[in-house]
Amino acid sequence: MRKLSLVHVDAGLEWRGGQRQALFLVRELKKKGFRVFFVVQPGSPLEQRARQEGLEVIPLAMKGEADLWASLKLSLIMKKKKCQLAHFHDAHSLSLGLRAASWAKVPIIVAHRRVDFPVGRNFFSRKKYGPKVDSIIAISEGIKKVLVEGGVPPEKIAVIPSGIDFSVFEDVRDRDFLRREFGFAADDFLVGIVAALEDHKGHIYLFQATKLVRAHSPKIKLIVVGTGSLRLELESQVQQLGIEDIVFFLGFREDVPRILASLDLFVLSSHLEGLGSSLLDAMACRLPVVATRTGGIPEIVHHGETGLLVPPKDPEALAKAIIELYHDRNLAHYLAERGQQYVRRHFSAEAMAERVIELYFKLAQKKGVNIYEGRS
């Protein structure tokens, strides 16, 4: 029986790639017999999904990194559950969680880093990623590089890529869902992006590329899935570009696998990106992909093999790649097949969990924490 008692904390209020990855990991840990408690924002999509998975969920309002009341409550939870390891999945939970773990005397602390934003060299960043954190999981080599440049010792960083649940894509049989919902013609070419409507996802460059694409073929349509702070601004930009008749904002959707199955091509236009979990989903769904050469994306999209790569913030190159795959369906099919094979080999949720468990055991041994109650 595994004795290691784990608390996982995610302070996210919206359902995004990081929250889904945290859910996958906690679910796999439970399957493998760990005592794991999941602390999440009350009323969040993550809480709802975690409960549906049958996980032990502890809702806790976390109002920001300086929320001392939340830190106190979290420390009491850690003490009550006799937690030996605390795993924080986002920057907000890490800041308030470090205080809580210190007060509760939790011996092992792990942080997850999923974004390739530069790490500040100020006091607060040094404290957040300082000696109290035993290990930082970077989801790509690109993120590790950013962390090292920010002053984090490389030996403290473990690169463990994100994982995906393939079963949700295997169950999808309907590939004409979007065509029926929006009345698209059979020969319309549906290009999609699933990403938060935030600056670093680069939607504006994709919209500029779409204007160029429209001049080439009006049969190419753009499907935009996601929510975010730039929704109104991006809709206004679409109108200013005169492409509102071929760009469709779907907002937040629960049925992303079904949407992906309806697409002909997936695009990710980020200029900052940790790895791109939506790319993994698209590739698992056997979609050809066009993505930007930034962050950890080139670690999964190998140009000409598992997808096409273009420079970030380059609408002309993005448009050219989309048009190329619109015309060359044989190349699109080849990239889709190779992409699906690649992610199935390297990016399963089970493989991610196994590597995280290996890290836990290594840290427990280093800290002298007893992992097992007994061995058979």
Descriptive account of the structure:
The chain has helices spanning 17-31, 45-52, 68-80, 91-104, 123-128, 141-149, 167-170, 177-182, 203-216, 231-241, 256-262, 277-284, 315-327, 329-346, 349-367, and strands at 5-10, 35-40, 57-59, 85-88, 108-113, 135-138, 157-159, 189-194, 220-225, 247-251, 265-268, 289-292, 308-310. The protein folds into 2 domains: 5-163 and 349-367, Glycogen Phosphorylase B (Rossmann fold, 3-Layer(aba) Sandwich); 167-346, Glycogen Phosphorylase B (Rossmann fold). By secondary structure, the protein is an alpha/beta fold. The protein has 15 helices and 13 strands. The model has no long low-confidence stretch (mean pLDDT 89).
Strand adjacency order, main sheet: 3-2-1-4-5-6-7
CATH class of the largest domain, named: Alpha Beta
Straight-line N-to-C gap: 9 Å
How many structural domains?
Answer: 2
For the secondary structure, the number of strands is: 13
Q: What gyration radius follows from the Cα positions, in whole Å?
A: 21 Å
- What is CATH's topology name of the largest domain? Rossmann fold
In short:
With 376 residues, the chain is of the alpha/beta class. The protein is 44% helix and 16% strand. It has 15 helices and 13 strands.
List the helices and strands and how they pair.
Elements: E1 5-10, H1 17-31, E2 35-40, H2 45-52, E3 57-59, H3 68-80, E4 85-88, H4 91-104, E5 108-113, H5 123-128, E6 135-138, H6 141-149, E7 157-159, H7 167-170, H8 177-182, E8 189-194, H9 203-216, E9 220-225, H10 231-241, E10 247-251, H11 256-262, E11 265-268, H12 277-284, E12 289-292, E13 308-310, H13 315-327, H14 329-346, H15 349-367
